[in-house]
Amino acid sequence: MELFSAAPADIWRLLIPSSHWLYRDEVPEDELIFHYRDQIYFVNNDGSVISLPKPAAFELMDLGELLDHLATSDCSYDYDDSGEFDYASVLLRMGYLVPTGSRRERADHLVEIVNTLAPEKMVTRYELPGVCFTFALYHGLLRCHELNRKCDWEFEHEIKSIKRAGQYEAKHFHLHS
Hints:
Strand order of the largest sheet: 1-10-9-7-8
Largest sheet: 5 strands, mixed
Number of strands: 10
Mean pLDDT: 88
Number of helices: 4
Strand content: 25-35%
Helix content: 10-25%
Structural class: alpha+beta
């Protein structure tokens, strides 16, 4: 599966179970609205994310009402405005727990992370034994965050590929928000 130039919303769709997605038929493909725990998250086409506490009876709101509530709320949190630009920053703040998948979905996965300023020279590779693809993606995003933090955010690390050990076709990701 080629995802190197995937929209940020597509990466989020790989992480967040579809049962949490909201307004599927009304939100453009390059955006996503989902709920998790007590928050609603808005992923914009540029990758920026805003969260909002779930309003009372949000299940009864249509998309327009929810967007109006977002526009008038004093309780929203804009990750970009707070200097949190990578996926892991959002995942950590939201307290996300990734599904581990069934035993049938688990395999050994090879993760390759590159520094976007020197992708040929600065590469991190590691193997995750016996995990599902979603967990490998989650782990890779957290590892990118850790690498970015270690270099004081001077560089941007991204997942280049995740592939099953022994398979030739890589799943590529372009990860920035």
